[in-house]
Amino acid sequence: MARPRTPLLDRERIAATALRLVAEQGEFSVPQVARALGVQTGSVYHHVDGRAGVVELIRERVCAGIDGGTLALEPWDRALETWARSYRAAFAAYPRAIPLLMTTPVRAPAVLAQYERAVALLLGAGFRTEQVMPLLTGLENLVLGSALDLAAPEAMWEPSPQTPLLAAALATVGAARAEAAFDLGLTAFLKHAQTLRVGAEPDGPPAPEPRPARSRTTRR
Fold it and tell me: What is the mean pLDDT of residues 199-205?
């Protein structure tokens, strides 16, 4: 019997099926992926390195939506802001994948390469090596929290007669609550990051230049 021209199973189909299961139920198992593809579980293991390998395929598929080219923009804070917004959009499309991907080590080569470019951006902008990972982790916390917020109901609070201050504050919130919150957090993050750079200018007006000392010589 001749082999089919289109393979019945490949890494792309495994990734797409696993991500669909995560989007639907928040989790997956390799037997579930196999059943959805109409193959034996052992056949899936011929293409991936266990369940962890499937997780990395999911990570690559989600992160493919992040525009890594934004990290080449100038200046550094514009690059980081644009990358953060693209990162948020990619994960907001699959919010149920966030807990899975954020609790397993990153091994996917394409994703690691994007982190490498982000590290190079920060080092080139004047940050010290020991500052880089706290900055990237803090930015990810903001980005992924906001991605989950986009998937949450618009009305996340149900005030009662005992919470009049909360009710009044909620009454002022528009339809773009999540967007406004993300903009506020990202602006604050970048402003604080600016103060950490080596040789960064302090906030406020520049100090006046010292005046030249008067000559003690008097005219006759």
Answer: 53
- What b-and-e string marks burial along 112-121, b requiring 16 or more CB atoms within 10 Å of the CB? eebbeebbeb
Q: Which residue has the tokens 């639907």?
A: 24
CB atoms within 10 A of CB 37: 17
pTM score > 0.85 for this model? no
* Nearest alpha-carbon partner for 135 in 101, 84, 89, 210: 84
Peptide bond into 75 cis (omega under 30): yes
Please enumerate in sequence order all residues whose Cβ is within 8 A of that of 160, keeping only pairs 6 or more positions apart, or say none. Answer: none
Contact 191, 80 (CB under 8 A): no
Is residue 26 within 8 Å of 51, Cβ to Cβ?
no
